[in-house]
Amino acid sequence: MNRLVIVANRVPNPRERGATAGGLAVALRDALARREALWFGWSGQTAETTEIEPREFRVGRITYATLDLGREDYRRYYQGFSNASLWPTLHYRLGLVQFSRDDLAGYRRVNAAFAEALAPLLRPDDTIWAHDFHLFPFGAELRRLGCRQRIGFFLHVPFPPAALFWALPQAEALLADLAAYDVIGVQSEDDAINLRGALAAIGKEEAVSRVAAFPIGIEAESFTALAEKAMVKRETERFQQSLVGRSLIIGVDRLDYTKGLPQRFCGFGQLLARFPEHRSKVTYLQVAPVSRGDVAQYRALRRELDEWAGRINGQYAEPDWMPLRYMTRAVARPVLAGFMRLARIGLVTPLRDGMNLVAKEYVAAQDPEDPGVLVLSRFAGAVAQLPGALLVNPLDPDEIAEALDQALTMPREDRRARWEECVVSVRRDGAQAWCHDFLSRLEGANDA
């Protein structure tokens, strides 16, 4: 089997295992275990200038090749165009877009540097798989260097309707770059329709046929086992004791404005205001590790959530009951799995999300005999695969409150029926199936 080359903005630490490894590393674990692989990208470190030659080291069958980014390139490519321009555009948030041509130039400069550093490491029969919005131009840069290997691209975040994407300056050139890839994968059929429309609008009809939806999944059985084992761990037992028999609502998200956290806090506040019978009987735990804490918008979001938490707890807390527990530090994956299994409700309400694997993890973590209920934003890509979830519009706090009340009062038989509707696809359409489907399409792309 030929070598698989994974290219991503950030190369994972190979010493991190299932408990702490990033989502992409977990999703690709099966594919990487079956063949020789090279994982290439940014080291996560900065230097005076971007390195030209990558540092290589090998762990098992995987070779890791990393570059340090120059501080100016980091600011322009990562903080600037990737996160201040592309991220809000792709998440339908034009009002938050901050564009500068210098940032775009830095974005393109880093993509070209990545291609120039990777090209000498490639073998003629390699299969190359680039990941996410940081690397729109990467395939085109490899083609300019004469690389003829099969190159696939997967976008982990949403792709908006063409009319919205055109609002991003020089959007047409970015779309033209995408046409260099042999397969262009997105999370949902809605995203595929949007991207095909955008490509067709600039005359890239051939590329339209290369766009397809490949919904990413999780290792469901492994996560279920993790949750089951966590139930006898000290952290889970302590947490369960602290609830004193109260129902638990859990949310797990990066601290990001796309996740709908202020609206979610407001919805929980509305639950306590409109359905007073739940006061002192339910606790909401929100885990939201700080993300991009050096960006002003994220610092403002954190202040807003601090204010919401203080307002809700100040209004409704009792001497022996804190309604909202809010954490901005990371919690280890096995511990979270146990907390999810304890929770009567998984609350997942992004304003827009490519997929949202937390929703699938919550389903996988449940006790089949007494499962909880998933309350899910209708704007998450996972909606199509989780038919038993209670769907809400995250912009309507009252709708969130009503769904929480419905979930808290739902009989066990109804909860089991809804969970069974969800768990079938979570188990069937897992990470292994996602890797297999994408790579089968990519490695057969030029066989016709």
From TrEMBL:
The record ties this protein, via CDD domains, to: GT20_TPS
Top-level lineage group: Bacteria
Molecular function GO terms recorded: alpha,alpha-trehalose-phosphate synthase (UDP-forming) activity
Picking any one GO biological process from the record gives:
trehalose biosynthetic process
Pfam families tied to this protein: Glyco_transf_20 (PF00982)
> Gene3D superfamilies, alphabetically?
Glycogen Phosphorylase B (3.40.50.2000)
Family of the protein in this entry: Belongs to the glycosyltransferase 20 family.
Q: Mind telling me what this protein is named?
A: Trehalose-6-phosphate synthase
